[in-house]
Specification:
Blueprint (H helix, E strand, L loop, with lengths): L5 E7 L2 E8 L2 E7 L11 E2 L6 H9 L2 H14 L8 E3 L2 E10 L5 E10 L5 E8 L4 E8 L6 E4 L4 E2 L4 E3 L6 E5 L10 E8 L3 E8 L6
Antiparallel strand pairs: 1-2, 2-3, 3-4, 5-6, 6-7, 7-12, 7-13, 8-11, 8-14, 9-10, 9-13, 14-15
Helix pairs in contact: 1-2
């Protein structure tokens, strides 16, 4: 094992188990005394769906739970984005993919309607951009085409979903140029539930 790596061992019943931690990655578990040669053991990747791991840690013995807590902290175990409330609406932030020049991009998010009446998205804007429009993507016997998605309605108990390859918010004329990690503020105005601002972080394509 390299000098930059370190290992942690705990005793769970009669078996001592361990994890090797190096370069921001977690290797293991393995039996004590059987540490992977040069960190060649099983690799536990960063958690993309951490809820199940978090649930498992609550059922584990106390010592194992302490170790898992440290592992989860290193691997970025965290809950999803916090929904933003606007009356009966709950907007779950997604993210922004920036255009190559950074002067525009595409935004994704989901709006849930927990009320008993439909609500219409009257207008959209992006702080710092000259224009913003909702589009849908359709393919009818030919190449995909984008069409304007004007004033969509969010049905009661339903959702307006913006995601890659389908409906999305496109904006342009943004200044200064967007960079990865920047926050873009989306301004929505609904007919019943009023205005709400949704901050979205710029991520790489496919990220």
């Amino acid at each position: 094992m390299s000098a930059a790596a370190r290992s942690v061992s705990i005793v769970v019943g009669p078996v001592a188990m361990g994890f090797a931690i190096a370069a921001g990655k977690v290797w293991g578990p393995y039996r004590s005394g059987q540490e992977p040669n040069g960190l060649a053991g099983a690799y536990l990747p960063p958690m993309r769906q951490p809820a199940s791991i978090c649930r498992q840690s609550r059922r584990a013995p106390a010592a194992l739970a302490l170790l898992l807590g440290a592992v989860l902290a290193l691997t970025g175990c965290r809950r999803g984005p916090t929904p933003i409330r606007a009356g009966d609406l709950s907007i779950v932030p997604g993210y922004v993919n920036a255009a190559p020049g950074g002067d525009g991009g595409v935004a994704y998010f989901v709006t849930h309607n927990g009320g008993a009446a439909p609500d219409t998205l009257r207008s959209v804007a992006v702080a710092g951009a000259s224009a913003a429009h909702l589009h849908t993507v359709a393919q009818a016997g030919g190449p995909e085409r984008m069409t304007l998605f004007e004033q969509p309605t969010v049905p009661p108990g339903g959702a307006l979903v913006l995601r890659p390859g389908e409906a999305h918010l496109m904006f342009e004329g943004f200044s200064p140029a967007l960079r990865l990690g920047d926050t873009v503020r989306i301004q929505l105005r609904f007919a019943r539930n009023g205005p709400v601002e949704v901050p979205l972080v710029v991520r790489p394509y496919g990220g």
